[in-house]
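Record Oxaloacetate tautomerase FAHD1, mitochondrial, 221 aa.
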Amino acid sequence: MTAPLKLSRFYEWGRKIVAVGRNYRAHCAELGNPVPKEPVLFLKPTTSYLPEGKGPTRGPPGCTDLHHEIELGVVISGGGTNIPQESAMDHVGGYVLALDMTARDYQNIAKEKGIPWTWAKCFDTACPISEFVPKEKVSDPQDLNMWLKVNGEVRQKTNTNDMIFTVPYIISYISKMMTLEPGDLILTGTPMGVAGVQPNDQLEAEIEGVVAMKFTVGDKL
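=>
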């Protein structure tokens, strides 16, 4: 008999990472993007997962401008399609702190050409994650203080109440276009302060009172 899958190890068996772009107004402004009227979505492959303690995060070959983006990650426990916003949180099993590592030079080239951001977001080690946090340990995902430091200097700091689109709204919105499945991870967007990192930089991030993590930046893949 096959043992049941552990949601805490979703990164080993979950099927997709759905990411939300431009979900904080100040971040939209710092990159010169308009504030969206509905969520901007893109996908990352599960091969981009990098659990804490499993090595450094690395930029793709040729990347000269690797950026950090701290995000609240929402782990889906109960799948569904056309999930009502009012019951969306019933489909959440827990959370992680995550980094959406981005090859900004690749992304800028893609934006100029009007083509997808795939190479900028989907390389191996592009999604560092913390340990899993059960849903019961987070009373309100829209009231979390989180920050990221590089070599001890604060680069990003926010409260999740600054999101343009809330977690229930995002879950409902995504499920209208694609079926959400147990083990899926939703990245809910990054606040302002994204910036470049170099090999050997030390990244520290925390959701205050909930979970923290540390990663080192390595050489390119």
